[in-house]
């Protein structure tokens, strides 16, 4: 695996937080250049859902992260193709809140949109949420800096993961 330099770990984006929350090993592999997502049909499906829903909105590209859209009053919106709300989605929105706040934006919170089930989930942004986002960011940096890959999850939790073959072959 490739080694990491300081530039590789300086800016964490939403994908880093999502991977950490799903599986620390996935984050570790991703940061070392293993990227099987392009061949994964679930990832392609998610991208199609993102591109075909809420088409009047504009992405906000922060460099290290791309937020689906931000509405007046600094409310962050994220679209997910999942049929079930997830803590990793909330963590991703909290991370975006943290990134914008660091840029001087007075963030009010976020909303995760699940168009396939026509549901939204509000994500609170307050002192507790900020602390949680900072702790999650610190955990991501620890995983990335580790010289060895984290242990793999139980195989049942890997269903549909684009990293499955890497972790479970051989």
UniProtKB/TrEMBL annotation:
Residues covered by the DUF83 domain: 14-169
Organism domain of life: Bacteria
InterPro entries: Dna2/Cas4_DUF83 (IPR022765), PDDEXK-like_dom_sf (IPR011604)
Stated name of the protein: CRISPR-associated protein Cas4
The species this protein was found in: Sphaerisporangium corydalis
């Amino acid at each position: 695996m490739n080694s990491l330099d300081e530039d590789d770990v300086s800016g964490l984006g939403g994908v880093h937080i999502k991977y950490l929350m799903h599986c620390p090993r996935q984050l570790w592999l991703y940061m070392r250049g293993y990227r099987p997502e392009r061949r994964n049909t679930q990832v392609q499906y998610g991208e199609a859902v993102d591109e075909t829903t809420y088409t009047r909105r504009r992405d906000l590209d922060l460099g290290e992260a791309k937020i689906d859209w931000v509405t007046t009053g600094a409310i962050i919106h994220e679209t997910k193709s999942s049929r079930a709300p997830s803590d990793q989605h909330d963590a991703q929105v909290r991370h975006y809140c943290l990134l914008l706040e660091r840029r001087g934006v007075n963030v009010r919170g976020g909303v995760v949109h699940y168009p396939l089930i026509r549901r939204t989930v509000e994500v609170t942004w307050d002192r507790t949420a900020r602390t949680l986002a900072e702790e999650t960011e610190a955990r991501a940096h620890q995983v990335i800096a580790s010289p060895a890959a984290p242990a793999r999850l139980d195989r049942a939790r890997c269903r549909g993961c684009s990293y499955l073959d890497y972790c479970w072959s051989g």
